[in-house]
């Protein structure tokens, strides 16, 4: 069992360039991928998504990839030699034509528009691909370890709630058994028969319904046993648990409607409280 919340990060180097990956997961009903990658790696985005889907099936995933180039590796200065040649030729022609004195200085050249350009180095994404995915897989592994660690804590708490549901279902079964015996007492002899016959009509009417909850009790016990079994599964179980909790709630509601006696209603309310606690934890489970 894994939680849907966790965090992982890793980094790799390609020469003097550092590629770092940070990945965070949060609760979500489905798999929601939110990627933030440098424009140099946009061509790899679909492969990155595929790698994540192979590891994670549910949750909101925020992925951040950063590329930090070494000093002097991100930009370079370029000079337009052709433009400079035209400029010098024009100056030489002007000096001759108008008989001007003096020389062209470097300072003057620096003021010529568009003579110098600062450009970014072109990134070879294919060359850096190996480092990107090595960092990605390492970050996803740490994320998985984080989710498993929290998942163990959720599992322990859910098991406690399921144990309480087991106790409650057994108590309901015992209560139904007691009511069943009381239902048979009018045919008994002596004081027991007199006591049973003296019961209020409303109480007798309620007791007649007691035998009707046997099927609900059987299904309730079956669902609780199945819940405990699901906790042992390794694949994602969040949606399965959520469905089973609906079934447990349905049986508890039916039991309380068929047997509106205070002891039974109290047990049902306690059972629904346990179900709600498990449901809250399920929101965090993959």
Describe the protein's architecture and organization.
By secondary structure, the chain is an alpha+beta fold. The chain has three domains: 6-71 and 129-146, Ribosomal Protein S5, domain 2 (2-Layer Sandwich); 77-117, no CATH class; 149-282, no CATH class. The chain is 58% helix and 16% strand. It has nine helices and six strands; from the N terminus they run βββαββααβαααααα. The protein has helices at residues 45-53, 81-98, 106-110, 125-184, 191-197, 201-208, 214-230, 238-258, 262-282, and strands spanning 6-14, 17-26, 31-36, 59-68, 75-79, 116-120. The strands form two sheets. The protein has a four-stranded mixed beta sheet, with helices on one face. It has a two-stranded antiparallel ribbon with strand order 5-6. A hairpin with a 2-residue loop joins β1 and β2. α4 packs antiparallel against α7 and α7 runs antiparallel to α8. The termini are close together. The model is unreliable at 183-201 and 204-211 (pLDDT under 50).
